[in-house]
Amino acid sequence: MLKKISILIFTTCLIYTNQALSQSILFPQDYFFEQYKNQKNYTTFSKDTFYHTSIFPVVNENSLSYDSINYYESDRNWIERKFLQDNFITLNKRDTLAGEINDFKLTIDPILNLNGGVARSINEIRATYTNTRGVIANLQINKRFKIETAFIENQSVFPLYISTQVNSSLDVLGQGRWKTFKKKGYDYAMSSGVVWWQASKNVELYLGHGKQKIGNGYRSFLLSDQAFNYPYARVDITSHKLKLKYTATYAVLMNLKPTVDNITNRPPGTEALIQKKPFSYQYLSYQPSKYFSFALFQGIVWKPGDEKNKLDVSPNYFNPIIFSNLATYGFNSTPEINAGIESNLKITKNTQLYCQLASDGKLDTNKRNRSFGLQIGLKLFNAFTLKNLFLQAEYNVYGGKLHQNTNLSGTPNLYTHYSQNLAYRTTLADGKEIIGMAAYKYKRFLITAKAIVFPKDNFENSSTFAEGKFSFILQPKTNMNVSAGCVLKDVHKKTNTLAGNPNRTQWIYLSFATSLFNSYYDF
After folding, report:
1. What is the band of 464 on the pLDDT scale with cuts at 50, 70, 90?
2. Nearest CA-CA partner of 241 in 290, 284, 196, 198
3. DSSP track, 169-220
4. Which H or E element spans position 328?
5. Neighbour count for residue 240 (Cβ, 10 Å)
6. Per-residue pLDDT, 129
7. Is residue 405 pLDDT above 70, yes or no?
8. Counting Cβ atoms within 10 Å, is residue 139 exposed (0-12), middle (13-18) or buried (19+)?
9. What angle do CA 516, 517, 522 make, to 5 degrees?
10. Is the four-CA dihedral 211, 130, 123, 181 of positive or negative sign?
């Protein structure tokens, strides 16, 4: 019996499917990988094709440039196919029942990140590493129903500047709560899952536990994927010709603090229950032409649970009409409301200009100016007519302690989850950020570079971050790659004391990883 099962598993692993890339719907994928994978959608310049590029994750109905990424070859042996082009395990089945064709596809792949390096800071040289093991599985039935699930377990030792941030937040920067691992390490895990159903041609339903993002830029002042996973239910409705897309999402977030009742009455040896708070957002995207799109956003964090963590959910939580709750409550109210607009302009087929404006409506100390976040960016695909050269420049500016106001009595209502901002990670002061990114892909080779400046009164006082990475993509379906990279953090600063320059870091690393989601260590 075991021999028959082994033969069956081996046979199914040999099955090849010449379809588009597996598309994760659990979380927004690695930023550079996503730009190349969906490049066809970003650069489509047809009056008959409308693709809303500002919301993630999404089930991509448009075909992907499979061959340009995967370089499929039919004569590879089994090991080459598993590492270079196919999912690790693939089960395909097609039945004909009552005159209808029923498709069934299951893929299972490992999630890995074996990362080792050396980080040099002011007062130490630290060996860094990450050991990630996990699995991701995707089930699709008849192209209208998908289930995806993933589990990831990690142990990490980070450079000092990351460890300092992790220690202050109790969360590994959007990757889960941590326990101490050895002397300087962290043990943390993350599970994700989503069910997607296309109820009709124009209605899609999502029920999951994961991350979401709104925006065309690298950062987002509306909703970012930097916070940890959360449970949500989401409905997407599109118009007949796809020019209009409306999204309503209902979720539950967490404050990393135990409830009052749980502190006083918790049985010995048990873990504290952390405080829950409802979250909802509405997003309306309109694309009147192939050149231009415009969108509105409203996100609301509602009243958290009481001392026994019981939620008293307002009926308005279920109100799906965008901006109606803002009109009802106003900005200076118990629900924490974040509202904004964004736009995307195709200047040419390969050139996109995007912008974003957000506010939570709080007044500054002089009660004159409201908090705000403004983003302007430019993307170039196939820049300067060089195929697969990607360039991006982005400018972010924020003021009035955006998403950081604690003057309200409902402080737990802050626009946060697991102690991380739901939107771009701003500081308590006003700030600016200038981002430059470049990537070039030649067959399976990928070179990426990122430079970020947080300008102050002069360059010496400014913060900087730079990262360069050279990768060889082994498995395009899961972005499995071998990489070598270098991070330079505030190395321009001359002050050579721990108090004067705690973040100065030189970090060199090697990795073997399936880079499926974003990790934001560039602060």
Report:
1. very high
2. 290
3. HSBSTTS-BEEEETTTEEEEEEEEEEEEEEEETTEEEEEEEE--EE-SSSS-
4. helix 324-329
5. 8
6. 95
7. no
8. middle
9. 130
10. positive
Give the CA distances from residue 426 to residues 55, 271, 373, 433, in Å, rounded to whole numbers and listed in that order. 21, 30, 9, 10
Distant-in-sequence, close-in-space partners of 132: CB < 8 Å, separation ≥ 6: 111, 112, 113, 114, 115, 152, 153, 154, 513
Identify the CA nearest to 485 among candidates 511, 454, 513: 511
Question: Distance (Å, rounded) from C-alpha 415 to C-alpha 403?
Answer: 6
- Round to whole Å and give the CA distance between 132 and 154: 4
At residue 69 the predicted structure's pLDDT band, cuts being 50, 70 and 90, is low
The mean pLDDT of the chain is 84
Distance CA 223, CA 516 (A): 19
Instruction: Say if residue 312 is exposed, middle or buried (CB neighbours under 10 Å; 0-12, 13-18, 19+).
Output: exposed
Structure tokens of 337?
Answer: 């409301």
pTM above 0.85, yes or no: yes
144-175 exposure pattern, b = at least 16 Cβ within 10 A, e = fewer: eebbbbbebebbbbbbbbbbebbeebebbbbb
**CA atoms within 13 A of residue 146's CA, in its CB half-sphere:** 24
The set of residues, in sequence order, having a beta carbon less than 8 Å from that of 131 and lying 6+ positions away, is 113, 114, 115, 154, 155, 156
Query: In this structure, what token pair is assigned to residue 249?
Result: 């999402």
Is residue 66 pLDDT above 60, yes or no? no
Residue 55 host element (H or E):
strand 55-56
Q: Read off the pLDDT of each residue in 110-138 and give the average, rounded to a whole number.
A: 93
Would you tell me how many other CB atoms lie within 10 Å of the CB of residue 428? 9
Distances, alpha carbon 223 to alpha carbons 68, 173, 245, in Å: 31, 15, 17
Q: What is the distance between the alpha carbons of residues 16 and 85, in angstroms, rounded to a whole number?
A: 9
The top-scoring range by mean pLDDT among 41-50, 208-217, 456-465 is 208-217
User: Measured between alpha carbons, how far is 290 from 241 in angstroms, rounded to an integer?
Assistant: 12
Between 3.30.160, 1.10.287, 2.40.160, 3.40.190, what CATH number should domain 2-514 receive? 2.40.160
- Assess whether pLDDT exceeds 50 at residue 17: no
CA distances from 285 to 52, 57, 220 (A): 7, 15, 16
In angstroms, the CA 292 to CA 278 distance is 33
Dihedral of CA 19/478/443/219: which sign?
positive
Task: Please report, for residues 29, 188, 251, the alpha-carbon distance to residue 194 in angstroms, rounded to integers and kept in the order given.
Answer: 15, 21, 13
CA pair distance 519, 297, nearest whole angstrom: 24
